[in-house]
Automatic annotation (TrEMBL):
PANTHER family per the UniProt record, alphabetical: INOSITOL-3-PHOSPHATE SYNTHASE (PTHR43125:SF1)
One Pfam family of this chain: Inos-1-P_synth
InterPro entries reported in the protein's UniProt record: MIPS, Myo-inos-1-P_Synthase, Myo-inos-1-P_Synthase_GAPDH, NAD(P)-bd_dom_sf
Domain Myo-inositol-1-phosphate synthase GAPDH-like: 199-307
Similarity annotation: Belongs to the myo-inositol 1-phosphate synthase family.
Protein name: Inositol-3-phosphate synthase
Amino acid sequence: MDSIRIAIVGVGNCASSLLQGIEYYRGRNEADAIGLMHWDLGGYLPSGIEVAAAFDIDARKVGKDVSEAIFSPPNCTTIFCPEMPKTGVTVRMGRVLDGFPEHMQGYKEENRFVLADEEEASREEIVRALEESGAEMLLNYLPVGSEEAVRFYAGCALEAGIGFINNMPVFIASDPAWAERFRERGLPIIGDDVKAQLGATITHRVLADLFRRRGVKLDRTYQLNTGGNTDFMNMLNRSRLASKRQSKTEAVQSVLEVPLDDDDIHIGPSDYVCWQKDNKVCFLRMEGRLFGDIPMHIDLRLSVEDSPNSAGIVIDAIRCCKLALDRGIGGVLTAPSAYFMKHPPVQVRDDDAYHMTEEFIRGLRRD
Ligand SMILES: NC(=O)c1ccc[n+]([C@@H]2O[C@H](COP(=O)([O-])OP(=O)(O)OC[C@H]3O[C@@H](n4cnc5c(N)ncnc54)[C@H](O)[C@@H]3O)[C@@H](O)[C@H]2O)c1
């Protein structure tokens, strides 16, 4: 089977889980592969994905082989594939811009980002590195709030002529101007902000949809999330958080027939609890009224390892992006974005997004 060459910006926990997963599934067959939505997606297996280039800014990652960098601090996600073969790809110094949150300085080095002393790469160097690597798409895993850095790397992907998968909530695929730039260049883009395999957002959406279908009026809801990784530490800075809140809130509002008043919905990352590491805990409450105007509520506590939960989706997003490249499709991939991402350009209920994505994979639709 053919391979798919990916470039990564941000070699953090999510990248670690993804790359571990590619290796982990290499040693399995379809019957014993747990945790995948697709074993063979349009002719591509998980093990066909290879890392071709990687960029970071952390002193403990830059200059290392990617297989080592993914296990370097402050990465703290579960190691489920400890024997990672060398990739031969060294993590390169990227461009910092607003990727390094100042407030992290107040935390222990082992838990936060540590800026490398290396000279930052220029735009030309990054574009050339992407071109020379043979990467076919760039996966963006930068910290929430890195508005400038994300636009910078998205611009590099455009210039290098490769696809883009935007796993976090700086709006690129859902910004019509950026979407148009990818369409004009004939390059596929999937985004924005990955919707984890079985995380808080999909659970909240499915339950909200259940209320709707069963005629239960949802009056109020909250979704409070805690975690102990750098993603949660980063989001302690409320000024970096706006787009994450928007992405998560719209993901739930969009499945309601009538959106809730702002005062009746509260969704977002709520605190950093160091010892939780990559374990994310979601406290979800939904208050509604059923037959006869009688009140009911759900209180739910969801506990998941955060980063493998994103990798279970990204492993399919990569293969859909590759199918688009094979088929000469550029611009936003509407169906995969709706199914895989929290803040796609077009929000669709998850059942419909699932069917649309299956049609895309089978070649029955082109976006
Ligand atoms: N885990 C999930 O389920 C999930 C779901 C949706 C979105 N996301 C988003 O995905 C992103 C990645 O998550 P993570 O847990 O891997 O984060 P992380 O903090 O572990 O990794 C971020 C990486 O980016 C690097 N970085 C920072 N600035 C950079 C720059 N300018 N250039 C290159 N590298 C830079 C950091 O050094 C770090 O290695 C976050 O924005 C997160 O919100 C994650």
